[in-house]
């Protein structure tokens, strides 16, 4: 008989509830109990923990729901990594001590931490402090090393593709340029996959610095070919050659808020081409709503595998998806750096082959 603790940490994403449901079902097959902590790691801090028992009954009917039934936060006492990872800190000893007291009081044998790069960096520190931990990779950004895919990514890509489908008809009716700014702080996976799926003409990502002249030249070339409307996808972290990211605000706790590059691109391209341009910031629509079928399946498989890892004693490891199989890797392998788009990777080459410009 084991008692599993579980929490969802960092930005929410579609598929979190599918993982919770998968864990509960696989655990109950073994007669193990599951205790869910509220609001990420923060739920470990109140005396006795801020938690609830997760059962087959209260996790039924949640797989198709976005968000997380446990709540989450990307702020608080457990932040260990801000930005691209060059800036790391440690969970304070008093916070670690309180975490251990809570887990002991609730007789938790192992803690499943569902999170992205930052949250799994924290999970790794808990593991190094002697707390039995299992990681489950989550992020719409798909920027975690050591797993081919995270759940949430496919839902975000579907949202971008749907938005582009809608923008396409209005752009072509008015012969306009439409610029859509999408999420992706350091990595351009959402822009790249969403852009290709949605028929974008220009994709700007953090890994390939762009130049406004080249973006305008790509639009003019399309005009010369008789394609009088253009769809431009810009990742929020995209930068001009020798440029810097655009910050919406730097004054908050946790991650800096990026944003604004879409409007900049829009103004610059309008000025250079003299064409009518409009901007759309897709924002948190990409994180909300129902998970795609792929994310429901991935989430369920990840949850079930996390329980199998506990049974196999694979502590300090993270669920990993490689070659259509779910396995595991040390959490440390996943958090030492962010998984970026390689500028010469096959996806980028495919995009170029169908005429997509990267503004470079
Ligand atoms: O990490 C996922 C992510 O969606 C980023 O792409 C985005 O910059 C960030 O979260 C925004 O998060 P929030 O608005 O919740 O701070």
Mean pLDDT: 95
Number of strands: 15
Number of domains: 2
The biggest sheet amounts to:
7 strands, mixed
Shape type: elongated
Number of helices: 10
Given helix and strand content, the structural type is alpha/beta
Report the portion of residues in β strands: 15-25%
How do the helices and strands follow one another from N- to C-terminus?
EHEEEEHEHEHEHEHEEEHEHEEHH
Question: Could you characterize what this model shows?
Answer:
There is one protein chain. The chain has 360 residues and is α/β, with parallel strands linked by helices. The chain has two domains: 3-151 and 291-334, Rossmann fold, CATH 3.40.50.450; 155-288, Phosphofructokinase domain (Rossmann fold). Helices cover 36% and strands 19% of the residues. 6-O-phosphono-beta-D-fructofuranose (F6P) is lined by residues 11, 74, 116, 139-141, 183-185, 236, 255, 258, 287.
Short description:
The chain is α/β, with parallel strands linked by helices.
Detail the topology: elements first, then pairings.
Blueprint (H helix, E strand, L loop, with lengths): L2 E6 L7 H14 L3 E5 L13 E4 L26 E2 L4 E2 L4 H13 L4 E6 L1 H12 L4 E5 L15 H22 L2 E6 L6 H9 L4 E3 L7 H13 L5 E6 L11 E3 L7 E2 L2 H13 L3 E5 L11 H19 L5 E6 L2 E6 H5 L10 H8 L7
Parallel strand pairs: 1-2, 1-6, 6-7, 7-14, 8-10, 8-13, 9-10
Antiparallel strand pairs: 2-3, 4-5, 11-12, 14-15
The site of 6-O-phosphono-beta-D-fructofuranose has 13 residues, from loops.
């Amino acid at each position: 008989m084991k008692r599993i603790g579980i929490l969802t940490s960092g930005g929410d994403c579609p598929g979190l509830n599918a993982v919770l449901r998968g864990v509960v079902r696989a655990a109950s097959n073994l007669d193990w109990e599951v205790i869910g902590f509220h609001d990420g790691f923060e739920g470990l801090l109140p005396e006795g923990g801020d938690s609830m028992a997760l059962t087959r009954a209260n996790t039924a009917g949640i797989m198709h729901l976005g968000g997380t039934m446990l709540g989450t936060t990307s702020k608080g006492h457990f932040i260990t990594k801000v930005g691209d990872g060059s800036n790391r800190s440690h969970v304070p000893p008093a916070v670690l001590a309180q975490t251990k007291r809570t887990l002991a009081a609730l007789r938790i044998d192992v803690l499943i931490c569902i999170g992205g790069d930052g949250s799994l960096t924290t999970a790794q520190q808990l593991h190094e402090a002697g707390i039995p931990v299992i990681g489950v990779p989550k992020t719409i950004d798909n920027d975690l090393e050591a797993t081919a895919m995270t759940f949430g990514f496919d839902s975000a890509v579907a949202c971008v593709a749907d938005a582009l489908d809608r923008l396409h008809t209005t752009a072509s009716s008015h012969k306009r340029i439409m610029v859509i700014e999408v999420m992706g702080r350091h990595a351009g996976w959402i822009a790249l996959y969403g852009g290709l799926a949605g028929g974008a003409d220009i994709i700007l990502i953090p890994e390939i610095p762009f130049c406004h002249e080249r973006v305008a030249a790509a639009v003019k070339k399309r005009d010369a070919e008789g394609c009088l409307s253009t769809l431009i996808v810009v990742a929020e972290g995209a930068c001009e050659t020798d440029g810097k990211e655009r910050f919406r605000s730097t004054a908050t706790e946790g991650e800096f808020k990026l944003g604004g590059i879409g409007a900049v691109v829009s103004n610059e391209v309008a000025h250079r081409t003299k064409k009518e341009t409009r901007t759309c910031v897709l924002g948190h629509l990409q994180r909300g709503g129902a998970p795609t079928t792929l994310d429901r399946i991935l989430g369920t498989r990840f949850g079930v595998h996390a329980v199998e890892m506990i049974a196999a004693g694979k502590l300090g490891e993270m669920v990993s998806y490689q070659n259509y199989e779910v396995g595991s890797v040390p959490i440390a392998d996943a958090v030492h750096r962010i998984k970026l788009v390689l500028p010469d990777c096959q996806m980028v080459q495919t995009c170029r082959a169908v005429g997509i410009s990267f503004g470079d």
